[in-house]
Design a protein that fits this description.
disordered N terminus, 55% helix, 12 helices, 410 residues, mainly alpha, globular
């Protein structure tokens, strides 16, 4: 996804200076809770400067609401200090025509696309037939092992939709400048994302079809291998150090994943972006924990049972649910250390509010029904209400910069 006329895309120095040719730095007068705001304008000329400029009024911008992916509800972070914080948004300087996305590579051939569609339709038919005759055990196992990968796969498709919409809108500067990357080849075009998502969907559909068909026909030994192959193959394909299949993007993802898990360095936009996506998929974390636990215990086809080490009453389930919020909490504390901005602490409080909800919900399986209904359930409902209301307020007021909670606005 490149600029239609090949012009160089620059980042604005302030919300009211769209035509500026310099980067945005941490000491500029910007919101500490979100990167610079962008406004759509006419396509830039070959010289790189867009025609027209935005007004200097402060208000909700198009990209402040769109830069978070459709894949999940992305939260905010404080303004990062240091050299690689997301407050430092630079233009993709260099030769003319360079933008913040790589130029499209040759994608799947027409014949391969036809074969891919036929394969997906065939696998979908097998899945539908096998699922319709499966018993409760097989259906529960399919939900456990495949709903988390399905959500991640849908997130990839929706990220491609984001990129497609941005390409059609011809936004200046491009929203991806917030990632502060000097190598535009890291970012994939929407065609490349759709191509990758299509092949991943084919692998997923084939694996699920074999699992259901084997489980329904009583071939548990074969069915047990299918989730193992899927859960080992996907990380291997993403992280294998080979110089092919979008190696720069995969390397950037692996580096960001490492920085997210161990937030000991100044937090970049990519770090908190990935962590916020993880927060939106917290339920999938618990599904993956149960799935991996069952594989390690050698009980792949018995994971649907509600007891045992890998059952729904295990203490590891609430821990897995809390992992994304713990990561974001640590990131906010790191940002406060770098910037000394009180907003980072208030943002950390938003993620901390999830812990009482998780703990109280886990107690349901370890207390009597009477105690749950009389004491713990009301406390759980109260904590859920407080956490949801505070998160909603923070996202609308600070992350999206909407005017819903501003006094005097008609």
């Amino acid at each position: 996804m490149t600029d239609a006329e090949g012009g160089e895309v620059h980042a604005p120095k302030s919300p009211g200076d769209v035509g500026a040719s310099v980067g945005v730095h941490a000491d500029d007068n910007l919101s500490p809770f979100w990167p610079p705001r962008f406004t759509p304008s006419a396509r830039p000329s070959h010289g790189g400067s867009p025609r027209g400029s935005s007004s200097s009024r402060r208000g909700p911008s198009v990209i402040s609401d769109m830069v978070k992916p459709l894949a999940g509800s992305v939260g905010s972070s404080g303004h990062s200090g240091g050299g690689d914080g997301f407050g430092h948004v630079h233009s993709s300087g260099g030769m003319e025509g360079e933008t913040h996305t790589a130029r499209g590579n040759k994608c799947t051939s027409p014949a391969a696309k036809v074969a891919l569609v036929i394969w997906l339709l065939g696998c979908s038919q097998v899945v539908a037939r096998a699922y319709s005759v499966s018993d409760e055990r097989v259906a529960s196992l399919a939900h456990l092992y495949y709903q988390a990968p399905a959500i991640v796969l849908m997130a990839v498709w929706l990220w491609g939709v984001n990129l497609l919409v941005w390409a059609r809108m011809a936004l200046t500067p491009h929203p991806l400048v917030v990632f502060d990357l000097h190598d535009p080849r890291v970012h994939l075009t929407h065609r490349q994302v759709f191509n990758m998502a299509a092949w991943c969907s084919a692998v997923f559909a084939g694996n699920l079809a074999v699992f259901l068909r084997a489980a329904v026909n009583g071939h548990d030994a074969l069915a047990a291998w299918m989730p193992v192959v899927l859960y080992l193959g996907v990380p291997a394909a993403l992280l294998v150090p080979v110089n092919t299949w979008h190696v720069r993007s995969r390397r950037f993802f692996a580096r960001t994943l490492r920085r997210m898990v161990v937030p000991l360095q100044p937090i970049s936009f990519a770090d908190f972006f990935l962590a916020d996506v993880a927060c939106s998929m917290a339920k999938s974390f618990s599904d993956v924990e149960r799935a991996v636990c069952s594989m390690l215990m050698g009980s792949v086809m018995r994971a649907a049972d509600h007891g045992g080490t890998c059952g729904s009453t295990s203490w590891k389930i609430p821990l897995a649910l809390a992992v994304p919020s713990i990561i974001r909490l640590l990131q906010c504390l790191r940002q406060y250390k770098d910037t000394k901005q009180a907003g980072c602490l208030w943002n950390a409080l938003k993620y901390s509010s999830a812990f009482p909800v998780i703990i109280l919900s886990a107690l349901k399986y370890h207390v009597s029904h009477r105690d749950w209904m009389s004491l713990y359930r009301p406390a759980w409902l109260a904590c859920s209400l407080v956490s949801t209301a505070y998160s909603y307020y923070w996202d609308v007021k600070h992350d999206w910069d909407l005017t819903l909670f501003r006094c005097g606005v008609g």
